[in-house]
Every structure is written in C-alpha cells, then in structure tokens.
Amino acid sequence: MHEHLTIIERLQLLAMEADAPDFAQEAADLADRVRAGRFYVAILGQFKRGKSTLINALLGQQVLPVGVAPVTSVVTVVRQGPELAARVRSVDSDWQTVALADLPQYVSEAENPENRKGIVGVEVFCPAPMLEGGLCLVDTPGIGSVFQGNTTETQAFVPHVDAAVLVIGADPPLSGEELSLLQDIAVRVRHLMVLMSKADRLPDAERTEVRQFTERVLAERLGRPVPLFEVSATERLAHAGPPRDWPQVHAALEAWRCEAGVELVDAAARRGLERLRDLLLHDLHERRSALQQPVDVSERRIRDLQRCVADAERSLQDLRYLLQAEQDGLARQLRQEREAFATAALPLALQSFDRAFDTVTQLEGPALRAHAMEQARDIAHDAVDGWRGEAAAAEEARFARVSKRFAEHAEAFLSQLANSGEFPPDALAAPRMPDIALHPRERYVFHEFRRMQSGHWLASLLDRVLPQEAARRAIRRDVREFLEQLVDVNSHRVEGDLTERVLESRRRIEAQVREALDDVVRSAKRALQHAQVVRANGEAAVGAEVARLDGLARRVADVEV
User: Fold this and answer.
1) For 223-272, what is each residue's pLDDT tens digit?
2) Would you tell me the crossing angle of helices 295-358 and 468-535 to the nearest 10 degrees?
3) Cis peptide preceding 366, ω within 30 of 0
4) Rounded-to-integer distance, Cα 489 and Cα 374, Å
C-alpha cells in the first residue's frame, strides 16, 4: 500500500505541474482512500427504485433525503464517522461542512437540477457498525431518469466502483438499462449482488414469478451467478413486516468488509494509478496538438469527434459479434471436452467406488452410508480435479491463440476510426496483449452436497431396519447415484468457471474500447480551452508551452504503475 501511495503522490505532483487540477484532485482522493483503506460499494439502479431509502434501511436510520420525485442528482458517499455530519465540494471551492438537514440543497433534483451548482463531491458521515473497516455506501443518481445529467453522473462514477449492489423493483422488474449497467460493472468488479426492493408490494405468487424471471435473465446475460435478495426498505425502517432477506444482505456485506476489504482497496489503487497515468498522458498530448492547429480546426474537430464517437458506438455492436463468435467457439470446444471426460471418467469412478465399498465389512447402517458417501466424494473430487487441471491448461492455450484474433478485431475497429482523420495519432490504442489474457480469477470450488451426505431421515431409518445385505444394496445404489451427480455437477462447474473467465476477458476489451472513445472527446475539449489561453500570450508562449508539455509527458510516461 505504501508503494502505491508514493506513486500516487508522484502523479499528483505531475498533474499539478501540468495545470490539470481535475487529475490532481483525483490523485489526492485516491491517496486519501488508500490511506484510510476505503472501498466503495455503489448502490445502482433506475430512478425511483428507492436507493436512498434502501441505504437508510441498511444503516438503520434516516441519513439520506428521500422523496417521490428523483432526489439524488449527485453521487453521494456515506462513510464511517463519529457522528452524523455532511460536507460538499464544488468546482469552485474545497470541502465545506453543511448541516445534514440542508443536504437536499446540494443532492436533490428539485434544488440542484442536473447539478447546476457544480457539486463534485458529497460525503455523509455516519457512526454505523456496517461502515467500519473502510466500507462506504455510494448513493448514485438514477439511470434512465428524465434528467439526462443523472445518467451521466452515474456512468462517470463507474471506474471508481469496487463492489456493486443493483436495486431493482418487484414491479416493474429488471430494465434493459439496469441490465446494461450491471454488465458494464461486472467487467470491472467481482463482488456483486442484486436487491429486489419493495418486495412488500406484490403478493407471494407474483413476486416469485418476478424473481424467477430476474434470475434467469441475470444468468443468461452475465454468465455467472449473482446473489438476488428480496427486501423492503420501508418495512425495515418501520420495524414491521417479515425479515425477508435482510439477514443475508447484511451477511454478504459483512463478508465483503471482512474478507475482501484489503484486496478491494489494493485493486482500486492499482486501477486508479493506471487510469490516472493514461488519462494524464492523453491530456498532455491533446493539449500539444491543440496548440499547433487553428482554433476553428479544434472546434470543428470536437464536433466531428462527437459525431464519430456516436457512429462508433453503433459500430461497436459489430465488434461484440466478432468477439462473441470467438467466445462461442471456445465454449463449444470446452463443452465437448467435458462431455468426453464425463463419458470416460464416470465408469472408472464407479468401478473404483465398488472396489472400495466391498472392502468395508465392519460398518453397517447409517455409519456405512456416511463412510460410503465420503468415499464417493473423494473419488469424484480426484477425478474432477485431475480433469480441471487439464481443462484449464487446454483452455488457456486455446485462449492464447484466440487472444490474437481478439486483439486483431479490436485493433481493426479502432484503426478504422483512427483512419477517419478525426482522431489524433495514438489516441485510440488497441488493448494490449497482457490485458486480454484469460481472466486469472478462478471461482471454482468443489461442491460436496453436504446436505445430501448427511442423509435423508427415511434412508437413515431404512438403513437401521432392513436386513444387512438389503441395506448394503440400497446404500451402494444410492451412493453410486450420488457419485454420478458429484462428477456431473462439478465437471459442469469447471466448465462454467472457465467459460466465465473467457467472458470476463472479452468484456474487458469492450470496456477498454468504450472508455477510449469517451476519453478522446473529453481531452479534446480541455485541450481547446487550454490552447485558447496560451495563444493569447503570443507565439513565444506557444513554443515554450509545447516544450513544457513534451517534458511533462516524458516524465509521466516514466511512472511505473
């Protein structure tokens, strides 16, 4: 962590020297959160999903303002503090303490429509046990709001998210915009959960139908399991109604805080450093280019860039299809290998179990069943684990070959844009090969079916009352079926884990391309403003500034992150 801080502080000084206060402030904020060990759990969703109310329910007290109309227009961070307090920061001033009762003046759509007051930071301090250990809850403006600025605020905060909670409604259910946002977040973070709020508003049968629909859509679109919990914030705050899934929600957040907090902060530091260095380098390049061309050319270029990026977003769908085709090919090969493994391994596993079972003559009844279950578990574990190593090595080798085509697709897409003449040299860099290696994070864990191993009460009873030979035959039959299930389920889990790693690698490419497009336009606008100021001081000032920018760019490029 100390190594990260040194590099962050170095980039902050370079940003200040480059007259880039936004980047300097971002570096200062990053250093502050690393020192304090803070990580951000973003509460996401459409407007009127009850995100602010849900945060209040999690904290057990009324902390954030709530209302019928869209309330939150600015990203608001709720963090641990000795007492309830709030502070805000604007584009024109540093942090200022405000009364909690006055918070709506800065974060509500009614009193700060589309953030016209220029608020760039809002923090609320709360003495809640949940917030100990660095966990911060982030209230975000609703996506899909009638106020377009709200969506922009939320999307801009996405790179800073360490973990995420998507709040959806029981009625209406998951929207396309929410699902798209969750897919973007899933590329960046591992820790996700979905809360179906206002669960008290639907009868049980309808709520079950909505839940099944949502779980199916999430599984299809994300390619990995995401916990889904039903809650009602109004019931929670009123201390009324059933507990629903609140205990599971608190347990999941506690696990994030205790088990993943250090990892999340470290990942945020590395992610923030790389983002800062790349953005600062590109900003310096843009400013240099703007100084060397007429103002009207820069203005026209920004308009062309915006049009080109809009066209590129539509063309990005073609890139998705190409990457999806490559991913599907890998998935088909892996599926065939799993089927071949199961066909060959299962008979051998059953034979191994039969031999081991026949050697056990001293045990009978429930004790024999428990021992046989353990034998089956060990045999299945060894079989699947052996294949898992082979499958992972084969998939990584295949992905190494496919990653070249991934890179070629992305490079061709970005080169087409670069050749349009609207983008500066090197502004649209294709993803680097190390960035598109098979995603290293492995989530596979052998599933043991502990409940099944403990035995059904009826089977336990029959084990005691049946004649010894009849009981042995029943135990052998049941445990063989159990062994088959272990091999089938866990080989599928290996397949699913490897497929998910490929999917996450593909999504990382798409995210890199999209961020590259957005960054180009933002930097071009800043560069034009800078060029206008420098040109006002004459040609000598322009030459001196170009030389200064070149020197800064070399020093920034030398920073290792």
Assistant:
1) 777 889 999 888 888 888 888 999 999 998 888 888 777 787 888 888 88
2) 170
3) no
4) 17
Alpha helix segments (H runs only) across 37-126: 51-59, 104-107
What are φ and ψ of residue 220, in 5° steps? -70, -40
Residue ending a domain, choose from 224, 244, 264: 264
| Whether residues 259 and 297 fall in one domain | no
pLDDT per position as a tens digit, 477-487:
888 888 888 88
Exposure string of 459-498, with b = 16+ CB inside 10 Å and e = fewer, is eeebbeeeeeeebbeebbebbbebbbebbeebbebbbbbb
Give the structural domain span for 366: 293-522
**Element (H or E) spanning 212, and its range?**
helix 204-222
Residue 222 CA, distance from chain mean position: 11
Whether 219 has a pLDDT exceeding 50, the answer reads yes
- Helix-helix angle 176-188:204-222, to 10 degrees: 50
Query: Which residue among 264, 283, 304 closes a domain?
Result: 264
- Say if 548 falls within a structural domain: no
Give yes or no: residues 260 and 298 share one domain. no
What is the three-class DSSP state of 178? helix
Q: For residues 423 and 517, what is the distance between their CA atoms, to the nearest angstrom?
A: 10
Strands of 23-102 (E only): list them: 39-44, 76-80, 85-90, 93-98
| Residue 31 forms part of a structural domain | no
| Shared-domain flag, residues 109 and 69 | yes
CA nearest 255: which of 244, 242, 264, 243?
Answer: 264
Phi-psi region of 521 (alpha: psi -120 to 50; beta: other; left: phi over 0): alpha
Indicate whether 252 and 309 sit together in one domain: no
367 lies in the same domain as 230: no
Q: Which of 201, 236, 257 is nearest to 55 (CA)?
A: 236
pLDDT, position 269 = 85
Which residues have CB under 8 Å from 162's CB, separation 6+? 39, 40, 41, 189, 191, 264, 265, 267, 268
What total number of domains does the chain contain?
A: 2
Q: CATH code at 239?
A: 3.40.50.300
**CA distance linking residue 534 with residue 349, whole number of Å:** 76
In a domain, residue 536? The reply is no
One-letter amino acid for residue 209 of the chain: E
Tens-digit pLDDT profile for residues 319-353: 667 667 777 888 888 888 888 988 898 899 999 98
The per-residue pLDDT for range 178-210, each reduced to its tens digit, is 777 777 777 777 888 989 888 888 888 888 888
Q: Encoding tokens for residue 15?
A: 């940003």
Most confident stretch, 174-178, 226-230, 511-515 = 226-230
Note whether residue 282 is domain-resident. Answer: no
Residues 221, 332 within the same domain: no
- Examine the domain organization and report whether 398 and 298 are in the same domain: yes
Q: How far is the C-alpha of 384 from the C-alpha of 484, rounded, in Å? A: 11
Q: How confident is the model at residue 68 (pLDDT cuts 50, 70, 90)?
A: very low
Which residue is associated with the tokens 């191993």? 453
Query: Where is pLDDT greater, at 384 or 219?
Result: 384
251 with 398, same domain: the answer is no
